[in-house]
Every structure is written in C-alpha cells, then in structure tokens.
TrEMBL record:
InterPro entries: Golgi_SNAP_su1. This is Golgi SNAP receptor complex member 1. The chain crosses the membrane at residues 214-232. PANTHER family: GOLGI SNAP RECEPTOR COMPLEX MEMBER 1, GOS-28 SNARE- RELATED. It comes from Nestor notabilis. Its main location: Golgi. It comes from the Eukaryota. It is found in: Golgi apparatus membrane. GO terms for cellular component: cis-Golgi network; Golgi medial cisterna; Golgi membrane; SNARE complex.
Length: 233
C-alpha cells in the first residue's frame, strides 16, 4: 500500500514536472515579446518551481526505493515461501515502476536543464545584438574607424616584419662575404710572406752562379798562362 501511494504521488509529480518543462520554452519566448518586469518574475518563479519539484521527486524516489528494499528483505526472510510467484511478480512490478519513474525523472530534468541553458545562451546573444543595434550612428562610425585603424596597424606590422626579414637576410649575406674576404686576405698574406723567401733563394742561387763563373774563369786564365809559358820555353 505504501508503494502504491508513493507511485501515485510520483506519477502526479512527474506529469506536473513534464508540463513545467514543456511550458518553460514558451514562457521564455513570451518574455522576449513583453516588458522587462513581469516576465522576469515568471521566469525566476519557474526556476524556483523546478528546483522545488526536483527535490520533492527525488525524496519520493528515495522513499520508494527504501520500501522496495524492505519488500525484497521480506521475501528473502525466513518463513516466506521462496516459490511464491505472485509475490515475486508484485515485487518485480514495483521495481519496474521505480525504474521507469527514475528514468523519466532524469530524462525530464536533463531536458529542462538543456532548454534553460539554450534559452539563457540565446538570450545573452540576443541581448548583445540588440545592444549593438541600439547604438547610435556616432558609435557605429567610431567602431568602423577603430576597425580601419586596426587594419592599418596590422598592415604596418606586416611591412615592418618584411623589412626586418630583408635586413636580416642582408646581414647574413654581408657576414658571409666578410668571411670570404678574410679568407682571401689570409691567402694573400700567406703568398706575400712566401715571396721574400723565394727572392732570397734566387739571389743566393745567382751569387753562387757568379762565384762559380769567377772561379772557373780564374782557373781557365791560369791554365792558359801556364800553357803559354810552357809553349815559349
């Protein structure tokens, strides 16, 4: 009897809860077409009603779960026929009803929260659009000028970045050229340092040639004189 009473209460609560979820979107639509006083109160009252009904349904589901557990303990206790098909069927039916009500409650609650979140999001977006449209022409013109100025700044930044890239490339080329010039200069210095040694070597060779020529000429002259003296004697 307690289980049936709670099931009846849950059935009525779930029907009212489902109607509240269905009417929530329509109330939100009516709020957009009406003033800013009463609709806000209606919307907030619906939110409070949703929270209250959700808590009540959760309490009833908890009570019904407890009663089902007690009935299951009774069927498993000593002295109760374990093969009583009618008793087991009744217990299973109450369990199925509890499962259906729990599933319906969570589904309706999730739908309500999704609708409220969607309506709040659309309301904020719509409010932003209306505030933008309600702006004066001067503000719109100022916004347009700010956008143009922002675009000019972006173009200037892009040109500066391109100029910096060209300067960096030029710097790298000049650095490589300086390295090449240093290498050529070092080679030229090496060759310049080698030439004096070659010149001194050639000069020594020429001196030795002259010395050898003088020695050879002196020997020939002495031999000629000796031959003439020998011939006249």
């Amino acid at each position: 009897k307690q289980a049936r009473q709670l099931e009846n209460e849950l059935d009525l609560k779930l029907v009212s809860f489902s109607k509240l979820c269905t009417s929530y979107s329509g109330t939100r639509d009516g709020r957009r077409d009406s003033s800013d006083t009463t609709p806000l109160l209606n919307g907030s009252s619906q939110d409070r009603m949703f929270e209250t009904m959700a808590v009540e349904i959760e309490q009833l589901l908890g009570k019904l779960t407890g009663i089902n557990d007690k009935m299951a303990e009774y069927t498993n206790s000593a002295g109760v026929p374990s093969l009583n098909a009618a008793l087991m069927h009744t217990l299973q039916r109450h369990r199925d009803i509890l499962q259906d009500y729990t599933h319906e409650f969570h589904k309706t609650k999730a739908n309500f929260l999704a609708i409220r979140e969607r309506e709040n999001l659309l309301g904020s977006v719509r409010k932003d659009i209306e505030s933008y449209k309600s702006g004066s022409g001067v503000n719109n013109r100022r916004t347009e000028l700010f956008l143009k100025e922002h675009e000019h700044l972006r173009n200037s930044d892009r040109l500066i970045e391109e100029t910096i890239s060209i300067a960096m490339a030029t710097k790298e080329n000049m650095t490589s050229q300086r390295g090449m010039l240093k290498s050529i200069q070092s080679r030229m210095n090496t060759l310049a340092n080698r030439f004096p040694a070659v010149n001194s070597l050639i000069q020594r060779i020429n001196l030795r040639k002259r010395r050898d020529s003088l020695i050879l000429g002196g020997i020939i002259g002495i031999c000629t004189i000796l031959l003439l003296l020998y011939a006249f004697h």
